[in-house]
Amino acid sequence: MPPHTTLPRTELRAAVLAVAASFAAMVGGCLMFLISGTDVPDLFVLLGRLLPGVASLVAVVALLGRDHLARLWRWRPASPRELAASFGLALVVMLPTLVLPAVAGLAFGAELEPADVLLAALPTIVMGTLLFALSTVGEEVLWRGQLQSLLRDQGFWRSSTIVGLLWMLFHVPLNLTYLAQGTLSTAEAIATTLSVAAWAPLLAALVERRGTIWPAVFAHAVPLSSLQLLTASSVAAPTTFWATNILAWVAMPTVAAVVLRRSARVRASVPV
């Protein structure tokens, strides 16, 4: 069989193996906490983000060889300039994407946290993004790297939707565990799960914009949601809660389309 037909099939097997291993590890970990009656610790969430990366690493090296990692993971050397550009792009895109739905939620009875509280949180958001990026890289090499690369010929929206649904399903065991342990309400578990799928196209668009997973790594690490910009009483109101979530779900693919359009213009302006 010609090598050019063998390689895509092997890449598909490697992706299936990585996704299956990630799901199995997440389900196993959640079952352990449910059976033991132990609350899911924050450390497990951080380590859980590394599971897809470990699964992808093992699958790609075992079936294809480590020489394919950089290509499949959309991984460029992390030079200081690349990291700074990717970090800046992530913040420039994510902050308005999260802020605008919260502001629009004012029409549905939402109340923003006081300005001094929000300003005081900015340094924490920036530092948190840098720290959490150490773990989100584990997810991004599989979802926006290996899987997005494999499905790229399906077109951006179809591929990012498929990846988003798989990424969402990966989070289902954890959110169900939170629901069973009372950490999340039913509404919060549903909204948190659906938000993952809505987020996927924007992260994929950032990868397309820079040609590397790094901006998605930082954007994924931003420790903020639209609801966190609102007062606790606002979030407790069902109308405000769902309106703000729905606005965020609309904002994310909309901003993704803007990023893609901007990327196309930049590519068109580069001399051939």
Automatic annotation (TrEMBL):
- CAAX prenyl protease 2/Lysostaphin resistance protein A-like domain location is 124-222
- Protein name listed in UniProt: CAAX prenyl protease 2/Lysostaphin resistance protein A-like domain-containing protein
Sequence intervals crossing the membrane: 12-37, 43-64, 85-108, 120-143, 155-174, 186-206, 213-235, 241-260
Q: InterPro entries given for it?
A: MmRce1-like, Rce1/LyrA-like_dom
Which domain of life does the UniProt lineage start with? Bacteria
Keywords annotated in UniProt? Membrane, Transmembrane, Transmembrane helix
Q: Which Pfam families does the UniProt record give?
A: Rce1-like
